[in-house]
Amino acid sequence: MKSNFDFLMPSVNFFGPGVIEKIGARAKMLNMKRPLIVTDQFLESLSDGAVAQATASLKAADVDYVIYNGVEPNPKVHNIQEAKALYLKEKCDSIITIGGGSAHDTGKGTGIILTNGDDITKLAGIETLTNALPPLIAVNTTAGTGSELTRHCVITNTETHLKFVVVSWRNIPLVSFNDPMLMLDVPKSLTAATGMDAFVQAIEPYVSTNRNAITDSQCIQAIKLIETSLRECVANGHNIEARTKMVEAEMLAGMAFNNADLGYVHAMAHQLGGQYDAPHGVCCALLLPVVEQYNIIAAPERFAELAQIMGENTAGLSVREAADLSIKAMRQMAEDVGIPKSIKAIGAKPEDFPLMAENALKDGNAFSNPRKGTKEEIIQLFQEAYDAE
Ligand code: NAD
Question: What residues form DSSP beta bridges with 162?
């Protein structure tokens, strides 16, 4: 637990059903004259989706805009290069991201290379940015990564198959919009994957070596909200109450990991994502029980608390027995929302594990993991996630 820390919060967060209609006025207030909207073709094609609603509000406020619709899942270096070229060609002055983590990270990455040098791979790491990004608003459509309010920007280098992270307070969007109405039609599998990402982002900071009392409270509340709403969102996407709770949870989890950092689940998930281009939330969910079972001996009391927070009955159990129950609850959640059991499902191959293990230990998320592993141990964890049935 850290007793001396700086606590990062984004500037302004609009939250709740219908808040998207305020984006035009807020863009105007920020003096945005010609924002580049960073999104993908699917979201742009929805007749009443987030892009349609945001652009209607911008038009009403007389704010001109240009659209880059080339965002790919697990955004690549070439995505931010394309967006930067369009930004310069169209003489834009600001950025609005609309989508999930991939859109926000593409927008952040574009801002980074506009003001901090063209080669983003050289900026991987912590607090490497010396210049401010252009003004950035993030409209979130998944619940989710928390990227709309975090200091992280995750980009994939297709040459090395490495997902790398640029972590800086300068990446935090000036304004975020989290409107659950924009998430009602998120398909079941995407709801499950993004919800499991939020679940992992609430669990890893709770056992991180960089946690503090504030992040603890955010993790506890996020986990409780996810326990009582993620299954409901998967079962019925139009349950507004459940969707709203998931947005609250993903924001809380985002704030928690923004300050307490993550662990080996994310460090290893980035390797799966970089190598196999698999959905990030699924990668995290597949690794969660295996990694946290391994972590238990570093913080058994914390895992025993997690079991209680997840609603397990720990009365009469030893700390170790209660800790094991938390892993059972994690497995149950993944199973209930339809996550596959093994990383075979995303095409993982054991011959890739040695290099992925080496790179996982270098990932920025590895350093706050409660148990310090060797390369052989990480290979073993990949193998267990592969053998899981
Ligand atoms: P995503 O942004 O990759 O989107 C996945 C798909 O969902 C896309 O095809 C998109 O069109 C679709 N989609 C998005 N919103 C939708 C909606 N409302 N309805 C229907 N379809 C919709 O998914 P994600 O899980 O939000 O983001 C994953 C990315 O975020 C990964 O690259 C991951 O590494 C990164 N990430 C970043 C942070 C951070 O803090 N920067 C944290 C965690 C993860």
Answer: 157
pLDDT in tens, 338-380: 999 999 999 999 999 999 999 999 998 999 999 999 999 999 9
Q: Does the ipTM exceed 0.90?
A: yes
Token pair for 242: 């459940």
User: How many Å lie between the centroid of ligand 1 and the Cα of residue 99?
Assistant: 7
In this predicted structure, what is the pLDDT of residue 9? 73
Question: What whole-number distance in Å separates Cα of residue 345 and Cα of residue 387?
Answer: 11
Distance, in Å, from the CA atom of 205 to the CA atom of 370, rounded to the nearest integer, reads 10
Residue for token pair 């924002």: 35
Report whether residue 368 contacts ligand 1, using a CB cutoff of 6 Å.
no
Are 23 and 57 a contacting pair, CB within 8 Å? yes
pLDDT of residue 62: 97
| Non-local CB neighbours of 13 within 8 Å, separated by 6+ positions | 149, 175, 176, 177, 178, 251
CATH 3.40.50.1970 fits 12-183, yes or no: yes
Asked if CATH classification 1.20.1090.10 holds for the domain at 188-387, the reply, yes or no, is yes
Residue 62's region, left for phi above 0, alpha for psi from -120 to 50, else beta, is: left
Sorted by where each begins, the domain ranges of the chain are 12-183, 188-387
Any ligand 1 atom below 6 A from CB of 144: yes
Q: Whose CA is nearest to atom 23 of ligand 1?
A: 100
Give percent of the chain with pLDDT exceeding 90: 95
Residue 244 has pLDDT above 80, yes or no: yes
CA of 103 to the centre of ligand 1 (A): 7
Rounded to 5 degrees, φ, ψ at 154 are -110, 120
Closest residue CA from atom 26 of ligand 1 = 100
